[in-house]
Design goal:
about 20% strand; five-stranded mixed β-sheet; about 40% helix; alpha/beta
Length: about 300
């Protein structure tokens, strides 16, 4: 007979409206041996709203203690405990604490299951009006302007719809950076306070959204951005080819690799892209800045 271990339950919690709580959430909160919560005060508010009381041990599990507390929870799981993990809103481990615990539980062959719940990512996608058949979630962008631009340049040619979380006080800078990298006319949607009283979805070109956000925005923010257009060889002029190479170089690729990738994406011979890069470099003329990173 094999060993008997506990179960790790990842429980989705409402992102706004408490009525969106999945029915199983209350049952799991009551029956868990241990409830690991990102914020124990928010947990108390949740249980009051649901009209229940937890019977198991309640511990905090947030970014600051995630590494230290994970072994303790895994030990409890190995001993047979049912551990419920909840974050402030949405699904644990999606831009919230949880990944380390899931990975550690899987390593110990412990059962991991979930109580599906509301998702800001999927809700924003559905409301955006942008293509949703293929998308990628990028989480929060770096706070520093240079690092933020670098991260955006990495996905400048991504054709899938992009989803980001952002803090309200950084939204205008982020949208301006997106307009710079992706293009002022790239379509996007800013989804604010989803499922809450003051829910708002603002749609439009990135430049327009950046100007709107400069006036000040409050609340929880999810940004959905249209993917890069699928352009054929005839639609790409030399200037656009050079721009795409530059974006890839600034993201860390070597020039040779960047040229090959741009050529493959555009369906062009590598020589044609190389010639465009050389022509742009020659047109810029000699100077201290006319080095590897000029184009």
């Amino acid at each position: 007979m094999g060993r008997v271990t506990g179960t790790l339950v990842l429980a989705g919690t409402p992102i706004g409206d408490i009525a969106d709580a999945p029915p199983r959430l209350a049952t799991e909160l009551v029956n868990a041996d241990i409830v690991a919560a990102e914020d124990t005060r928010r947990l108390r508010g949740l249980t009051r709203a649901l009209g229940i009381h937890t019977t198991g041990k309640v511990v905090s599990y947030f970014e600051g203690n995630e590494s230290a507390r994970t072994p303790e929870l895994v030990e409890a799981l190995v001993g047979g405990a049912r551990v419920l993990l909840v974050t402030d809103a949405g699904m644990p481990s999606v831009s919230d604490p949880g990944y380390r615990l899931v990975a550690a539980a899987v390593e110990q062959d412990i059962k991991v299951t979930a109580v599906p719940g509301p998702s800001a990512v999927l809700t924003a996608l559905a409301l955006s009006g942008l293509p949703v058949d293929r998308f990628c979630f990028e989480g929060f962008l770096p706070r520093k302007a240079g690092e933020r631009l670098g991260r955006l340049r990495e996905v400048a040619d991504e054709r899938r719809t992009l989803v980001y979380f952002e803090a309200p006080h950084r939204l205008d800078d982020t949208l301006a950076a997106m307009a710079e990298v992706f293009g002022a006319e790239r379509r996007a949607a800013v989804c604010r306070e989803l499922t809450k009283t003051y829910e708002e979805v603002k749609r439009g070109p990135l430049a327009d959204l950046a100007a709107w956000a400069a006036e000040g925005v409050r609340g929880e923010i999810t940004v959905v951005v249209e993917g890069a257009p699928e352009t054929g060889p005839a639609e790409l002029d030399a200037e656009e080819l050079v721009r795409r190479v530059r974006v890839r170089e600034e993201a860390g690729e070597r020039r040779k690799e960047a040229i090959a990738a741009v050529a493959a994406d555009a369906g062009l011979p590598k020589r044609e892209v190389f010639d465009a890069v050389v022509a742009a470099k020659n047109a810029a003329g000699p100077g201290p800045g006319n080095g590897k990173g000029l184009i």
